[in-house]
Amino acid sequence: MNRKLAAVAAIATVLVASACSSSSSSGGDSKPATLSKDGKGKTVTVWLMDDAQKGWPTVVDAAKKQFESETGATLNIQWQTWTNYTTKLDTALLSGNAPDAIEVGNTQTAKYIDAGSFVDLTGVKSQFDNSDKWLDSLAASGQNADGSKTYAVPYYAGARVLIYRKDLFAAAGVTTPPTTLDELKADLTKVKAANASTPGFSALYLPGQNWYTAASFGAGSFGVKNVVAQKSGAKWTGTLTDPKFIDGVKTWDDLQKNFSVGGTTTDEATQDALMAKGNIGAIVGAGWELGSVIDPKTGDPKLADKLATIALPGTAAGSPTPAFLGGSDLAVPSKAANPGLGATFLQIYTNTQQQTELAKFAIPNNKTLTAAYKAAKPENKAAGDAAEGSTWFIPNSPMWSGADETALKTAFGAIAAGGDPATELKKVQDTVIGDLNG
Fold it and tell me: So which residues are the signal peptide here (predicted)?
């Protein structure tokens, strides 16, 4: 009961904020969007994270110039930070002073969709460039639970990859990257043997409670975007106990038991710093973590030319293990003063021109332009390949909470400690599905 009350409390504010919008539990009563260019004399307010201000200001500037030219409106970009962002957004929605367009993390989107707090973009989706090629999991995060309607537009993404020490692999006789899981196991066996005298060495660091990586192996066998639960009618049903998912988890368990000394009660939070210390051959992490490993403040700059990344190999060459896809979405609040202009800004900000420029800095929102991202820097190829492949996402429900993630971390930690995968996954599935279904 306490777990569920915590999840309900987390969305209470936004539910109140949207009460006047006649929202439903599926967000289906949110008003449909229109695209407007009637902006003369109007100011359009947009909230964007300062990641764009620091990382790709040219994209923002170009979109601002085009928007103001085509609509006659003045664009007011208000830069935000992730710290306490949802609290600030909830307050704005509650007070009725919502911006006209916003950025939101893709794991945060579901609660606002469910509350009817976003304008329904389904009717104008086809007018957004490359909308038929949006990245699978990023697109799914902007939809209602059954995927029938779109309330948020994919913005940019990040994908988990295999980050490894080229020098340690080469010293063990591995000179070409593995392309399949069998090749990865063979290579890790060599790396492990070559470093047998190094205390606490992990050929592949897989801490037991890193459930995102563990579940990716399950996704590789199961072949679904959502590897925890799926919506079936009005109810959620679990996928964790599917035999194919369990087989994939057994593959992960075999890897962590044979090649990792990451422990059973820790997650991936410290893996970058540990890799920088020199006793890890490879980790599975977001592409940007390579920079953390070599950062002078958090890692070792001397490793800069010794690291490489590839998409985590799958069961067959050319088919990576499905990656969890994180990132950001863009939406128009239902109570925006200028929703049509807000939607038009999103249309311009995510058009082919802007996304092509953004691809120099981050994974763009669609598979058509991931090639531009991979071409921008050699180290981008791995994350680009992962994003183009099969990806997965958490249950797209407002009832998903941090408590569910804690339960999953505990379950996979128990498996890493020797617990039976089928038994532990059944227990956590019952917990998560109970939460999702209230």
Answer: 1-19
CB-based contacts of 343, cutoff 8 Å, min separation 6: 33, 34, 35, 36, 101, 119, 121, 124, 332
Question: Token pair of 311, please?
Answer: 């998409």
Number of domains in the chain: 2
Burial string for 400-426 (b: 16+ CB within 10 Å, else e) reads bbebbbebbbbbbbbbbeebebeebbb
Ramachandran angles phi, psi of 331, nearest 5°: -150, 165
Can you tell me the distance from the alpha carbon of 421 to that of 249, in angstroms, rounded to the nearest whole number?
A: 7
Provide the token pair at 326: 């994180």
Maximum Cα interatomic distance, the chain, rounded to a whole number of Å = 72
Residues 44 and 114 in one domain: yes
Single-letter amino acid code for the residue at 112: Y
Kindly state the DSSP code that residue 125 receives in the 8-state scheme: G
**312-326 pLDDT, tens digit each:** 999 998 889 999 998
| Cβ–Cβ < 8 Å for 203, 281 | yes
Q: Are residues 176 and 108 in the same domain?
A: no
Domain CATH number, residue 414: 3.40.190.10
pLDDT digits (tens, 9 = 90+) for 123-163: 999 999 999 999 988 999 999 988 899 999 999 999 999 99
pLDDT value at residue 318? 87
By C-alpha distance, which of 162, 209, 210, 216 is closest to 184?
A: 162
Domain extent for 103: 12-157+327-375
CA–CA dist 76, 80 (Å, integer): 13
Residue 32 pLDDT: 84
**pTM as predicted:** 0.87
Q: Which residue has the tokens 């392309």?
A: 179
CA Rg value for the chain: 22
Measure the CA–CA gap between 415 and 250, rounded to whole angstroms.
9
Q: Is 308 in the same domain as 332?
A: no
Q: Nearest CA to 86 among 45, 136, 40, 49? A: 49
Q: Do 76 and 63 belong together in one domain? A: yes
